[in-house]
């Protein structure tokens, strides 16, 4: 029981670290092209009237900024789900190994050990599912 608590705590800590890093990476990005407002001065208005190429350059820079935001979100989501999946897999593997070791030492307690192990695995898997939800939110909502 103590081992399952330990691995669940490790998985939760890994998920929290991934969530914090993902949120920091998303909010540290430049503003998206839709919300970015160009800075207009007197010179800018005069240049825009005389040079239609400035609008094309501005559109290109907006597309580049939007592509950078999208790729950064994808990287943050990949890191979030990757790290939490690895931590969850390690925690599950170790808890299953220790549970099987405990069952082999005390076969009469197999039912209790198995039910405790399954409860711990559910908690660890829940943490990984939360990381998946955070990754989906990073990609589609933020």
Keywords, separated by commas or semicolons:
rod-shaped; F1FO ATP Synthase; mainly alpha; 4 helices; 142 residues; single chain
Structure summarized in a few sentences:
With 142 residues, the chain is an all-alpha fold.
Describe this entry's structure for a reader.
With 142 residues, the chain is mostly helical. It has a single domain, classed as F1FO ATP Synthase (Up-down Bundle), CATH 1.20.20.10. Helix content is 84%, strand content 0%. The chain is built from 4 helices and no strands. Helix 1 (2-27) runs antiparallel to helix 3 and helix 1 (2-27) packs parallel to helix 4. The longest helix is centred in the middle third of the chain and has 53 residues, at 53-105. It starts with a helix and ends with a helix. The model has no long low-confidence stretch (mean pLDDT 75).
